Structure to design on (307 residues):
């Protein structure tokens, strides 16, 4: 029974490597959540847009060092959460932001949260101590859920307890438990800070099941696990779709160069490397032409366009 529950967890003696990049991504996201809540809570809509631009720049910067698969997973996560935010917040009223909108930084922030979950899940720390981390998360979230339904909490949280049970199912039945564990830490951090700062507030009653819920609910991490699951499953599908479109364009007579422009997003570094090589070649040709003209004063370099 135990082996079946832990079949998607890494082996106890599994090899692991500590990459500084993974910890930097996670630490940066934790730090930015705190800074963002500080600046957003007393700001205007213009400040929300400014924070959104900063979030976009940071997300793109970190994605430059990731694989094509991870980049596309982040794209799926951002697209899915954008739709989900408008449905869950604006339409259903499950939670409400200060201006009753979806702040510009939220969908892109979800992209950073997902990337941080991936980074922590593949880190040596999580691979080595997966079982200990699992025990800690279940204990902390379990106590939080029990407190919400005990009658001692200021606000009941039956909905949060239900979400915690769903989180357990995701943890032991899902194929990426370390991603869900990592999501618990970063999402609990941002939910506690965001609700405490007043950036958003959860409704007292869940609009779907009619259950009481805390602010935030104890099992709120499961919603972010849903985002992770969609991104993990949708990323490969999007990659196959783009590859299919690329092959279709080629079959229609499009040159590889034009197809390459269409798929630039799939490999930033390769694209930048090609641009750099072309630029260096042009500089070399220009320098050779100048050198030749200096050695032969009578040699005149005719302009290409005589018009």
């Amino acid at each position: 029974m135990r082996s079946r529950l832990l079949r998607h967890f890494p082996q106890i003696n599994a090899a692991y490597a500590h990459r500084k990049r993974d910890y930097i991504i996670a630490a940066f996201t934790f730090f930015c959540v705190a800074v963002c809540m500080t600046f957003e809570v007393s700001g205007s809509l213009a400040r929300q847009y400014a924070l959104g631009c900063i979030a976009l720049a940071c997300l793109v910067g970190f994605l430059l060092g990731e694989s094509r698969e991870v980049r596309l997973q982040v794209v799926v996560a951002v697209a899915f959460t954008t739709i989900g935010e408008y449905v869950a917040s604006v339409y259903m009223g499950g939670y409400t932001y200060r201006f009753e909108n979806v702040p510009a930084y939220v969908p892109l922030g979800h992209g950073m949260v997902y990337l941080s979950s991936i980074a922590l899940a593949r880190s040596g720390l999580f691979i080595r101590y997966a079982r200990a981390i699992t025990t800690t998360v279940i204990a902390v979230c379990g106590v939080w859920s029990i407190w919400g339904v005990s009658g001692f909490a200021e606000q009941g949280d039956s909905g949060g307890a239900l979400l915690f049970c769903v989180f357990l199912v995701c943890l032991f039945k899902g194929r990426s438990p370390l991603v869900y564990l990592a999501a618990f830490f970063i999402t609990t951090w941002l939910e506690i800070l965001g609700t405490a700062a007043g950036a958003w507030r959860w409704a007292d009653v869940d609009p779907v099941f009619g259950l009481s819920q805390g602010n935030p609910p104890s099992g709120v991490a499961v919603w972010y696990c849903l985002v992770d699951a969609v991104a993990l499953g949708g990323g490969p599908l999007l990659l196959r779709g783009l590859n299919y479109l690329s092959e279709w364009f080629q079959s229609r007579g499009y040159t590889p160069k034009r197809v390459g422009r269409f798929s630039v997003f799939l490999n930033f570094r390769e694209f930048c490397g090609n641009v750099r090589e072309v630029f260096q070649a042009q500089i070399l040709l220009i320098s050779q032409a100048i050198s030749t003209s200096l050695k032969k004063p009578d040699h005149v370099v005719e302009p290409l366009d005589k018009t």
User: Anything to note?
Assistant: The two ends are 82 Å apart (CA to CA). Residues 267-307 form one domain.
